[in-house]
Amino acid sequence: MSKKKILSLLLTGVMCVGLLAGCGGQDSGTDTTDDSTNTETTETGNKQIDTLRIAFVPSREPEEIITATEPLKQMLTDELAKLGYDVGEVDITVGTSYEAVGEALSAGTADVGLIPGGTYVLYDDGCDVLLTATRDGLSIDSDNAKDWNDNAPTEPTTEQVTSYRALMIAGPSEKGQELAAKVNAGEALTWEDVSSANWSVANSSSPAGYIYPSLWLQENFEKNITDLPHAVQSDSYGSAFARLASGQVDILCTYADARRDYEDEWTGEYGMTNSIWDDTAVVGVTPAIYNDTISVSKTSPIMDDDFKAALSEAFINIGNTEEGKEVIAIYSHNGYLPAQSSDYDSERAAQEMIQSLNSAG
How far is it, in rounded angstroms, from Cα 22 to Cα 16? Predict the structure, then answer.
């Protein structure tokens, strides 16, 4: 959907709300308002949505996501009520994998999914992208790994950006420190260097945890993740950092500001003495990745154009409040902007390359 069309739909949704409210004021005289339940169907003309099902990908611990996003239920209910929709229940779940959320959107068992661009393009036959997330820019945005180490720690900036980088981060293990020292000395890593290390990767639809690191391997060594002899898949970035801290893996693939998100856990839950900035180093940097999406199911019975417009406006409004920013910060989101399918054409190219490489392998 084009940005012009989305903006047009938003305006249409607002106009419809006004028209419905006006019609409600011209009642024939029968008052169906129920004071005991505070419903005003006749006066507002709001449409009823029994349940709005929202699925999150497990990029953080599922319990952490569920707890952090609990306030989103009431925020969405309130915003959508202003836009002409009374929602009975907002059901928030965390998928067992990125693919599980994509499949739920395709099947219509989830109405809305907060998913990365990579997941969206894999399942765009079954879902439409509504919005892209904005996030705080970072104090470092270089394609040179040594720059990230020389200027650590990474800090947020006030600039809002619609893309981010993936990093290959070496840990405190002997092999991890060996690779970090080589990078910091200005030396290029070899295939022997990276293939001899133990890697933690995410599932195959994760941009930062799999797709773009695989492209980095292809660009630098004409290899991909499936060629790594010692790679394990972690179910979340939290478990990946725990493995990095314990020395079970030497390198993990993650998003650029992940160390900021796990800084407290590093010296707390993971039991490390030094800070995460002292114990880790960047050994690889990918090109920029377009931000996460809010996508909706094409097969959901509630997802017509009017409701898509209202839902888009509701999420944008929530992202513009301090309370809303606190909730969506669980995904490092700071707000939302209208998106269109073509924004993710680079992701499609990346997916095609990954599939081609995997087939060739």
Answer: 10
The whole-angstrom distance between residue 38's C-alpha and the CA centroid of its chain comes to 36
CB-based contacts of 95: which residues, under 8 Å, 6+ apart? 55, 56, 57, 58, 101, 104
Residue 29 above 80 pLDDT? no
CA torsion, ordered 272, 276, 280, 284, to nearest 10 deg:
140
Bridging pattern class, strands 199-201 and 231-233: parallel
Q: How far apart are CA 217 and CA 204, in angstroms?
A: 15
Cβ distance 279 to 171 under 8 Å? Answer: yes
Query: Is the pLDDT score of 251 beyond 90?
Result: yes
Tokens 């290959």 locate to 168
Q: Categorise residue 120: left if φ over 0, alpha if ψ from -120 to 50, beta otherwise.
A: alpha
Cα atoms in the 13 Å half-sphere on the side-chain side of 65: 20
Handedness of CA 68, 74, 77, 81 (dihedral sign): negative
In angstroms, the CA 286 to CA 148 distance is: 12
Return the structure tokens found at 149.
């180490």
**What's the mean pLDDT when you consider all of the chain?**
87
Neighbours of 81 (CB within 10 A): 15
